[in-house]
């Protein structure tokens, strides 16, 4: 297949792209700048694509940031700390983010005659993000194909996978996790305390390997896991 991958620069989307690439599919990548405070992930996406020699485009959607409300990822709102499944993590929801990204990716897929678009929603996202659930994947694929003449599949390969399983797959696929970024706080070093840091550190621990990126606090996650 020819696949347009939505690549944030984080570990999930990087693993998904590596897996698709290693299976022999023709991969291109789109990364979205939507005014996120953790824009460091964009540079990580560029580095990963250079590593794989994958065509990569950064799509500038920063003009819509002011329309997206008070998400902790795009506004002057404190990023919550704690476990990813906690209620306070809803502050990190960016309204309709995946619909926006998948719509742009699908248009690009049609233009370059690709077969599919891919994004890396996973089972751990379901508690917090409505647009990372299976019913959303089915609905958005239906909408894309009702609205266009061409058929574009929407692939979410990790929709039933845990973060730990993603790490295990990534290790098998040779993913350079040292080039990826997950922290939401937008600092030079990952905080180790926001929801995505704690989930990532827990996943690497359960996979039996140390996360290769640097953290301000590597121990906090142990105090908040269920």
- Uncertain runs: none
Strand content: 5-15%
Report mean pLDDT, rounded to a whole number. Answer: 95
The SSE order reads EHEHEHEHEHHH
The CATH H-level superfamily is: HUPs
Read across the widest sheet, the strand sequence of neighbours is 3-2-1-4-5
Q: What features would you describe in this structure?
A:
The chain is an alpha/beta fold and 226 residues long. It has helices spanning 11-22, 40-52, 97-111, 134-146, 163-173, 195-206, 221-224; strands spanning 2-6, 26-33, 56-60, 116-118, 153-155. It has one domain (2-224): 3-Layer(aba) Sandwich (Rossmann fold). The protein is built from seven helices and five strands, in the order E-H-E-H-E-H-E-H-E-H-H-H. A five-stranded parallel beta sheet has the order 3-2-1-4-5, sandwiched between helices. The protein is globular.
Keywords:
226 residues, alpha/beta, Rossmann fold, 11% strand, globular
Write the layout of secondary structure elements.
Layout: E1 2-6, H1 11-22, E2 26-33, H2 40-52, E3 56-60, H3 97-111, E4 116-118, H4 134-146, E5 153-155, H5 163-173, H6 195-206, H7 221-224
Parallel strand pairs: 1-2, 1-4, 2-3, 4-5
Helix pairs in contact: 1-5, 5-6
């Amino acid at each position: 297949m020819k696949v347009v991958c939505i690549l944030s620069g984080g570990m999930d989307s990087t693993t998904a792209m590596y897996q698709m690439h290693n299976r022999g599919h023709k991969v291109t990548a789109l990364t979205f700048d939507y005014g996120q405070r953790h824009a460091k992930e964009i540079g990580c996406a560029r580095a990963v694509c250079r590593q794989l020699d994958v065509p990569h485009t950064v799509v500038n959607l920063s003009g819509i940031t002011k329309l997206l409300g008070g998400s902790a990822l795009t506004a002057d709102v404190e990023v919550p700390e704690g476990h990813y499944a906690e209620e306070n993590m809803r502050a990190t929801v960016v309204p309709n983010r995946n619909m926006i990204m998948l719509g742009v990716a699908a248009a690009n897929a049609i233009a370059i005659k690709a077969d599919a678009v891919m994004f890396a929603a996973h089972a751990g996202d379901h508690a917090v993000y409505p647009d990372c659930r299976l019913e959303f994947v089915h609905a958005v694929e239906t909408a894309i194909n009702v609205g266009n003449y061409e058929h574009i599949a929407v692939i979410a390969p990790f929709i039933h996978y845990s973060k730990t399983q993603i790490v295990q797959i990534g290790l098998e696929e040779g993913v350079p996790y040292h080039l990826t970024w997950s922290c939401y706080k937008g600092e030079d070093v990952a905080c180790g305390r926001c929801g995505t840091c704690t989930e990532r550190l827990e996943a690497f621990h359960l996979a039996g390997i140390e996360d290769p990126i640097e953290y301000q606090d590597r121990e906090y996650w142990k105090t908040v896991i269920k």
